[in-house]
């Protein structure tokens, strides 16, 4: 596993600066949670790492070398909306196979698809299904399997549970934790839900208006927040019972 | 396919198309000899039993010639359409294939060409490529390309925003492969439908070119050519010119109607079976602003009726806040729509009674009669506001319509209400359009709209799901304040258990169109007795969740609302289920619908 480093990354769309010199490190085998309100630039940061957003200045490095922005990326991304992240006309198996490196033979392909589906706790028989036949949670697991198929060194997960029903959200979160334990994955886990981040991440970074305002071990940041904005976020996450 | 054929227009189109294509395939084989048989004894004859529409200047049978000409006419039309389609696709895909800058240039050029009169383009190209069938096919094909390009461009732009295209790019899929594997299959259907319709028009254009002498040249002939030949004698033998003309129109119609029918083929929906015996009417619960007894909502669906709500009984007391939780598809929103009187046929709403603020909602015109006694807030406020109108007047509209206020007074009230929902600088904001508001602000404006009158009940369906934590909290606090100030009751629907427990006094838990448990909000986490409620609560991590254990999950999938089971709907996913559960549906007794309520799994 590898280390992904954002070094003073800025992203600008026209006159609007979305990220201001953001520095962040996703250490080898670590899961780093990225929290912040919508529009603060969380997705943009992840997209910049795979070449989907233009980096205006700064550098994004994988083990000290720039992340390639063409061809099969060593950094893979899983998207928020499981209904738009799989091609509706491609079977689950084909979608996964497309991300595999090299040109595996037929047999090799089948074995690898079955192995990957197994990793995300899906039946290998699902390989022939179209996305329309799967539930949201199952689709999200296929999306994860596709990301793993590319043999990534780092995975970026952008709000992968927020479009899911609570009953399947838990299953996907458990899976993420299993995979970190079993595969030692490095992951940037983006979410606006603090309880979810607390459950999966060992480090947390708080993004506010395009800047990282606080970061550190999850227990420390959530237990003893130092920045006002983090406190504000935490207050919002707790019940407002006393208020009513 | 079937849906298109089921409609008379579609059927007519397809039958006609089959006939036309049959003529194109078999015409020259069957009538070829007859069409070339010269009969000098019978030149330029009128219609007769032997020659249905007469003969030409060499005495050849015109009817046979029209049938034989079908092949060339259709082939040329198809060839031209194919040229348009391929060229259009390449031009439309330019932004994806050629990079952004060149792509933008091509798109701009296409837009200019689309605005050009099509006929002018055809004539221009026809002159460039020279007289003859091949030149004409190229001309018509080229002239049709911009329209195809624009269609493809729009469709491709829609596809390339999809995450699966981004995912494929990250996975290293190249441009051409992307186009062939991800884009083409996903736009093929609308493009083919459009091409079918376009082929009809091309047929007409081609006939026009041949008629003008720019298209097919003698000794070959297509319908346009035959029309021209017949023109000289139009006053003596009108059918000689009209015959091929009718062929053109029929063939054009065949393509057009077929394409049209496929383009607008409606999703098939079965008609609902006749309603059963209506339940005997009951009286609403005393002291309630909302009372529903055995509420059932059935929606016609493609695979049979969807039983979205299957007998829900509940009441909301004056000033009370009641939450509804459950997985997606459990019937929460449909219940909300029924309560707001917003469901209309073909959706069927049945109940022993459904009374809101004293109005019987089972009688027609319910939503209108409710007036401002009911306020509704939906998940996506962007769809509840009209994007073309300023926010203030949209709020004012409510008071003008329901309370008969004047324009000035209503606008003043709108500004006042925006202020009440804590929108800063309300006078200026009232003059802005909905898109100029952030998501949280729109949601507050929506609540403000509900407050234009004097609501006794606020129905809020996932009002904060589209918002992030900080804004979510502001909206929930606003709802709480509004209730304190106005004394309105609240029916709050959410899939987020924590939101509901924070805001509400009482919670209804829905599963598969039924209420499976009803309990005080404060007891939801600790005293739930239904296995589903317990699982739902355990599945959501909160700030106190044990980090060393996996989260609880609910195995399996929710039931299909088309095939609702006879017994307990939760049985396939329930750890406690037995044969009794699978055959007998548990009634809602003492706040819980479970045969084994409260038992530990
Ligand atoms: N392609 C784009 N062109 C212009 N502005 C953009 C573009 N993409 C993002 N932005 C802007 O960048 C800002 C950050 O967007 P981003 O999608 O990163 O937010 P986010 O934190 O991920 O939000 P959410 O939680 O809602 O997904 C927003 O103000 C957005 O309007
Ligand atoms: S009735 Fe039976 S199957 Fe249904 S929830 Fe209760 S125990 Fe489970
Ligand atoms: Mg985002």
TrEMBL record, chain A:
<dbReference type="InterPro" id="IPR003593">
    <property type="entry name" value="AAA+_ATPase"/>
</dbReference>
<dbReference type="InterPro" id="IPR017871">
    <property type="entry name" value="ABC_transporter-like_CS"/>
</dbReference>
<dbReference type="InterPro" id="IPR050319">
    <property type="entry name" value="ABC_transp_ATP-bind"/>
</dbReference>
<dbReference type="GO" id="GO:0055085">
    <property type="term" value="P:transmembrane transport"/>
</dbReference>
<feature type="domain" description="ABC transporter">
    <location>
        <begin position="4"/>
        <end position="234"/>
    </location>
</feature>
<dbReference type="Pfam" id="PF00005">
    <property type="entry name" value="ABC_tran"/>
</dbReference>
<protein>
    <submittedName>
        <fullName>ATP-binding cassette domain-containing protein</fullName>
    </submittedName>
</protein>
<comment type="similarity">
    <text>Belongs to the ABC transporter superfamily.</text>
</comment>
<dbReference type="InterPro" id="IPR003439">
    <property type="entry name" value="ABC_transporter-like_ATP-bd"/>
</dbReference>
<keyword id="KW-0067">ATP-binding</keyword>
<keyword id="KW-0547">Nucleotide-binding</keyword>
<dbReference type="InterPro" id="IPR027417">
    <property type="entry name" value="P-loop_NTPase"/>
</dbReference>
<keyword id="KW-0813">Transport</keyword>
<dbReference type="GO" id="GO:0005524">
    <property type="term" value="F:ATP binding"/>
</dbReference>
<dbReference type="GO" id="GO:0016887">
    <property type="term" value="F:ATP hydrolysis activity"/>
</dbReference>
TrEMBL record, chain B:
<dbReference type="InterPro" id="IPR050388">
    <property type="entry name" value="ABC_Ni/Peptide_Import"/>
</dbReference>
<protein>
    <submittedName>
        <fullName>ABC transporter permease subunit</fullName>
    </submittedName>
</protein>
<comment type="similarity">
    <text>Belongs to the ABC transporter superfamily.</text>
</comment>
<dbReference type="Pfam" id="PF00528">
    <property type="entry name" value="BPD_transp_1"/>
</dbReference>
<feature type="transmembrane region" description="Helical">
    <location>
        <begin position="234"/>
        <end position="258"/>
    </location>
</feature>
<feature type="transmembrane region" description="Helical">
    <location>
        <begin position="68"/>
        <end position="93"/>
    </location>
</feature>
<dbReference type="GO" id="GO:0005886">
    <property type="term" value="C:plasma membrane"/>
</dbReference>
<keyword id="KW-1133">Transmembrane helix</keyword>
<dbReference type="GO" id="GO:0055085">
    <property type="term" value="P:transmembrane transport"/>
</dbReference>
<dbReference type="InterPro" id="IPR035906">
    <property type="entry name" value="MetI-like_sf"/>
</dbReference>
<dbReference type="GO" id="GO:0015833">
    <property type="term" value="P:peptide transport"/>
</dbReference>
<dbReference type="GO" id="GO:0005524">
    <property type="term" value="F:ATP binding"/>
</dbReference>
<dbReference type="InterPro" id="IPR017871">
    <property type="entry name" value="ABC_transporter-like_CS"/>
</dbReference>
<dbReference type="InterPro" id="IPR000515">
    <property type="entry name" value="MetI-like"/>
</dbReference>
<dbReference type="InterPro" id="IPR003439">
    <property type="entry name" value="ABC_transporter-like_ATP-bd"/>
</dbReference>
<keyword id="KW-0472">Membrane</keyword>
<keyword id="KW-0812">Transmembrane</keyword>
<feature type="domain" description="ABC transporter">
    <location>
        <begin position="290"/>
        <end position="537"/>
    </location>
</feature>
<feature type="domain" description="ABC transmembrane type-1">
    <location>
        <begin position="70"/>
        <end position="259"/>
    </location>
</feature>
<feature type="transmembrane region" description="Helical">
    <location>
        <begin position="105"/>
        <end position="129"/>
    </location>
</feature>
<comment type="similarity">
    <text>Belongs to the binding-protein-dependent transport system permease family.</text>
</comment>
<dbReference type="Pfam" id="PF08352">
    <property type="entry name" value="oligo_HPY"/>
</dbReference>
